[in-house]
Amino acid sequence: MALLTCKNLNVGYDGKIVASNINFSIEKGNYLCVIGENGSGKSTLMKTVLGLIPPSSGEITFSNSFSRKQIGYLPQQNAIQRTFPASVREIVLSGCLNHMHFPYFYKKEDKEKAAFNIERLGITHLATKCYRELSGGQQQRVLLARALCSASSMLLLDEPVTGLDPDATESMYEIVRKLNQEGMAIMMISHDLEQVDKYASHILKIGKEVTFSNARDYR
């Protein structure tokens, strides 16, 4: 059963549609890669799925046992975010805020979840370090651990290896692959067609025409 389904979806911003007639679904354990030229609407689609931007038209539906609050999101970083003056533990723990209601305070289980995901991403030795002192690859692991504090069964990743060196890039892909093998559904925007071919179970190509296909058929 699909966790989420997009039907006849048009997405855009400031009254301008940038991608139209988008139809796809994601099931538990799927690895969906979103590809297309720069400016084609990939990030806009992802933000629309997350509810950060309203759809221009069409439908986004979720299964009865799933909701947006159960999605983990790893956006592209900007220069200001890379210099954020907080500890690794604080940043990862903030991923639990997605499930909270005002007034916000962390419970024991939130701290345990953060500690679990810090260990899961192999960054326990960095827990007390300041985020802005980390390498790009380490920062991405921290942000992925944060996203996992929100995720129950789906992660949305917007070009997660941008700016990383080859070793950090390969490490990030392997981490995401392992999470997918453990049952996490992945929706990832990527320009790395070699890695898309290697890992994807499904491909959504956005352009003048939008196509959604099983990766075996795409190959």
Question: In brief, what are we looking at here?
Answer:
The protein is α/β, with parallel strands linked by helices. It is 33% helix and 27% strand.
The number of helical segments is 8
Task: Give the fraction of residues assigned to helices.
Answer: 25-40%
Largest sheet: 6 strands, mixed
Our Rg estimate from Cα atoms comes to 17 Å
Mean pLDDT: 90
SSE order, as H and E? EEEHEEHHHHEHEHEEH
Tell me, briefly, the overall form: globular
- State which percent range the strand residues make up: 25-35%
The span between the termini is 25 Å
Compute the number of strand runs.
Answer: 9
Residue ranges: pLDDT <50 for 5 or more in a row?
A: none
Query: What structural class do helix, strand and pairing data support?
Result: alpha/beta
Identify the strand order in the major beta sheet.
5-6-7-3-8-9
